Amino acid sequence: MSGPRIQLIHAVMAAQKPVHEAFARLWPEANPVDLADTALASDIAETGELTPAFTGRMAALIRYGVDTGADGVLFTCSAFGAAIEEARQGVAIPVLKPDEAMIARALALAKEGQGHIGGLATFAPTIPSLAGELEAAAEAVLLNPEIELRHVQGALDLSKAGDQDGHDRLIVEAAAGMTNVDVLMLAQFSMSGVRGVIPDAPGRTVLASPDEAVLKLKALIEES
Predict the structure, then answer these.
(1) What percent of the chain clears pLDDT 90, i.e. is strictly above it?
(2) Where are the alpha helices (DSSP H) in the chain?
(3) What is the pTM of this model?
(4) For the sheet containing 95-96, what is the strand order?
(5) How is the chain split into domains, by residue range?
(6) Any idea which fold 100-209 has?
C-alpha cells in the first residue's frame, strides 16, 4: 500500500530535485507527485506584484491536487505566499506554502534568543513575499525579530544557463556576508543543495526550506 500522496506544485523545475531528495531522506513512505505551471515565475516577474489572478491560479492548482486524490499539497516556489494563503482557505487537506515551515522554525529559534533572522533568495520577487510572511508570522507569536533579506543577484541566471557551480558559488559568497545573523534562511528550494557547503559561523543556524516543509507536512498529515 502506497503512502500519503503529496501534490507538489512547481513554478520552476529546479525545485523538483531538491524536494524529492528531501522526501526520500525524511519521509520515504510518502508518494510525491509533480505538477508544474512554469509560466508563473515569468508572470510574477513581469507584473511585479501578486494580483487577484494569481490567487485564482493557486486555487486551480490546489483543486487539481484535491481532485486527483492528494492527501496534502506543497508549493515549492516562494514568491506566491499571500496568494496561496488566500487560495487555501476552506480546503480540507493540508496545503503548505514553501517557506512557512522554515519561517516557523526560524521564529522558534528567535524565541530561544536567536533574534536576528536573515534570508537569501535567488528570485527577486521572493523577497517581498518572504518579508510579508515573516513579519505576519512574527506578529502572530508576539515577536519582533530583526530581519535582513537579500537577493543573490545573478545566481538564478547562472543556473538557467547551466552553470550550477557558479550559482552555488554566489550563494555561498552571499552567505559569507551574513555572518552577523543568528538564523540564515535559504528561501528557494533550488538553493538547498548549498546548505552543506556554507561555512559554519559561530552562533548561526542555516535553514533550508525543503527539509522544513517535508517535516511539517508529515506532522500535519500524521496528526489528521
Answers:
(1) 87
(2) 16-26, 39-47, 52-67, 81-87, 100-111, 126-140, 155-160, 164-176, 209-223
(3) 0.91
(4) 31-36, 5-10, 72-75, 95-96
(5) 5-97+211-223, 100-209
(6) Rossmann fold (3.40.50)
